[in-house]
Amino acid sequence: MKKTQPKGLTRIINASKYSLKGLKAAWQNEAAFRQESVLLIIMSAVTFLLPVSHLEQLVMVASLFLVVIVELLNSAIEAVVDRIGPEHHVLSGRAKDIGSAAVFVALVLVVITWGSILLL
Hints:
Elements: H1 8-29, H2 31-47, H3 54-84, H4 90-119
Helix pairs in contact: 2-3, 3-4
């Protein structure tokens, strides 16, 4: 017999609980996530002190959120790879390296975004 999945508001509530559980796990287990989250909070606050438009402020903060989002995905990839086994495998290493590269590209985007807005 097929298990019925929750629908409507119950599904949204359950999904929210899983999301909060994931954020808690990332905070507890991932130093990079903690560092980038603190960076997000501090640098978002800094945007209120800068002579930029609301749209520029939004773009600057959005670029910071993107780093945190990509870091969460990278951490998920690393967790899955580590779950498979501790032995080195070329594909496991590649997956982790590509996830790390995604975070790096997101950080470069922050530098380009902030630099373009503040220096031009």
